[in-house]
Amino acid sequence: MTESNNSIKLVRITTVALSLKYLLPGQMKFMREHGFDVTMMSAAGNEIPFVEAAEGCTFHEVPLSRTINPVQDLKCIWHLYRWLKKYKPQIIHSETPKAGLVGMISGLLAGVPVRIHTVAGLPLMVEKGFKYWLLVWVERITNACATNVWPNSFSLQKIMLQKKLARPGKMQVLAYGSSNGTNTSRYSAASIIPGRLAEIKAQINYDDRLLYNLCVARLVKDKGIAELVEAFSTVYNQDDRQRLLLVGPYEKHLDPLPEPTIQLIDTHPGIIRVAITDAVEYFLFIARIFIFPSYREGFPNVVMEAGSMGIPVVCSRIEGNVDMVDHEVTGLLFESQNTADLLDKWTYAIKNPEIMRNMGEALQQKIRKYYDRTVIWNAIHQAYRQLAKPVN
Fold first, then answer.
1. pLDDT (0 to 100) of residue 2
2. What are residue 135's phi and psi, to 5 degrees?
3. DSSP string covering 52-71, please?
4. What is the mean pLDDT of residues 255-276?
5. Sheet holding 271-274: strands in order across?
6. SS3 of 151, please?
7. Which conformational region is residue 235 in: left (phi greater than 0), alpha (psi within -120 to 50 degrees), or beta?
8. Global pTM?
9. I need a labelling partner for 11 at 20 to 30 A (CA). Which of 112, 167, 271, 290 fits?
């Protein structure tokens, strides 16, 4: 659909362009094709040219930082306020905490009529003391400046209500949850190209006599990587055919892993690390079990992707995960930050492949019915249309 003079101006803002590329792919293009005038925003990053080409939307850089930096944040609010006053969008929609704080304050000051903040996880869930309360008030300020707050899972909405992070009347979970759904066509066995699969297998020195377990996540503390690696040491000692594929980058400047964990990852004979990939579906295809031990989430994309592929899932009992995984029905849940419970569920999964295969198939049916990305995009599109009217 081509744009017209009556197009609704939509600003989609995240802290870094990486989020637009990996968390929201296709969504901006969908809105553009359905008559919205879309501008994407984030801090500068190498991913911007890719995102511009993939989505076909205008990009505007803003000087956002991921860490708490009052001087830089005030500069960013002023920069965005001036831009919004000039551009006059009907909707500004933020995702990620810092983009939410800056975007919602700037949007309020600039008089943007519809200010939507998607909550896709709460960093405060893993903090204590002063930083916990600081993050509580950051969330409350962000949500107070928003006209609409969209937790991306029902379990996350429940926590937000308990902690009084936003007024109940502002909050809404669209469809069945998730910020973007998943591409069920891509994440399927039918999408696997033999030549590309051979390349991935060569990358990890694949051996069909070995048994591959997979975790896709940033290698940081609050993704549960330390507990995962500790549990795997026992799994490997019990059966040295087991392998742990860790797909994701270290982030040593944000929530770093303990040094002994890093050393174990880098030296353990059973651990295979892949820094980053655009071929997650191939690693899922290789894996027998998908493990996801995160401490906090909103609605994790990688669990949806594993589910769409029909891979048996063992994950932490946290918000987001519990919306998809029903214990012993569509996967196994273990208590977050509990290495012994993780090991117990992981060992059960290894010893009971047929039961786990059935759970994987049940999760696959659920993901494809409720979380295909077109289901989520249509729900967001309908909400945008209800909230804003085009300028005549």
1. 40
2. -70, -35
3. HHHH--EEEE----SS--HH
4. 94
5. 271-274, 242-247, 211-216, 289-292, 313-316, 332-334
6. strand
7. alpha
8. 0.91
9. 167
